[in-house]
Amino acid sequence: MNVATNLQTTSNSMEQFYQELLKSPELQAKLKQASDPESLCQLAVQLGNEMGYSFTIEQAHAAMAIEVAIGDVIEESNLSTGIPRAAFGGCIGVK
Q1: pLDDT value for 4
Q2: How many domains does the chain have?
Q3: N or C terminus of the chain: which is more exposed, having fewer CB within 10 Å?
């Protein structure tokens, strides 16, 4: 597997995990147990692995940072997308 294929597989895993997170109050509750962004990312990777998804702590950090940045832009422009805000960061109120 080359680097580009590996990155695409990881991206798909992150997206699939995110979709599961949006649909699962139980998964959201588990992630709310994290006390800080680092433990949140570690827990997300652990839960993702248990569910058959493969991504790293660094990739979870990047996903969380992107969601927080997007959320900030949405809040600043008062746009309403109907999409739950910050799947990772929103779980524990990280902004």
Answers
A1: 41
A2: 1
A3: N
